[in-house]
Amino acid sequence: MGRVVAISEESRHHLYQRLEAVLGEREAAVLMEHLPPVGWADVATKRDLDVLGDRLDARIDSVEHRVEEVGHQLTGRMDRMETGLTARMDGLETGLTARMDGLGTGMTGLTARMDGLDSGMTGLAARLDGVDSGVTGLAARMDGVFGTMSVRFAHVEQGMADLRADSRTYLLAVMSAMTVLVGALIAAIRL
Asked: Do the beta carbons of residue 189 and residue 66 sit within 8 Å?
């Protein structure tokens, strides 16, 4: 056999001219279209494609495994964050409940003191005939204090409800952000 000659554009053009002279223009063009645009060494075989397919399958399996590991890690982190946030919210709720209970106890003491003052005032009114109008004014002030305290307690209760709602909203926002990050990470790994 003869030696292998590298195919260049010049040699392809020369072959085409020769075929055109022997076979004719149309037949030469058809025959040239069936030749590869490069040397046979550059043409991929079915075996080459099978090997490439196996390598791609292995890489995809590896990436899927890594994505699964990252998913497990993120799930663990999110679970720990949720546990931490829940514990923190429980602690806040316990602290606020204790403070509210303390305020309630303080109010009970204040009410008892106010009741004592009221008794003292009634006794003083019986002893002093001219002081009755002053006692009536003081009673009106006390009603105002009780009204103010009721309004303040209503504000504290509303603040507690708002804090609970804000805490839940924050927790949901954090979980949503983590879900978006996991989705973006998975999408980035697949690319």
From this structure: yes
DSSP string over 82-107: HHHHHHHHHHHHHHHHHHHHHHHHHH
92 pLDDT more than 80: yes
Q: pLDDT digit string (tens) for 77-89?
A: 888 888 888 888 8
Q: Residues for the chain: how many in total? A: 191
In the chain, which ranges are continuous DSSP H helix? Answer: 9-23, 25-33, 46-127, 132-190
Helix 25-33 to helix 9-23 angle (10° resolution) is: 140
Structure tokens at 167: 């805490």
Render pLDDT for 107-162 as a digit per residue (tens, 0 to 9): 888 888 888 877 876 776 667 655 556 657 767 787 887 788 888 878 878 878 88
- Residue 128: DSSP 8-state: -
Q: What is the DSSP letter of 35?
A: S
